[in-house]
Amino acid sequence: MSEPFTIRHEKDFEKNGKWSLVRRSLDLNAFGMNMATLQPGETIVEHDETERNQEEVFIILNGTATMIINGEEHEAPEGTYIRVSPEPKRNLANNGTTPVKILIVSAPCSSGYVPMEWA
Question: Of the candidates 87, 60, 88, 92, which has an alpha carbon nearest to the alpha carbon of residue 74?
Answer without folding.
Answer: 92
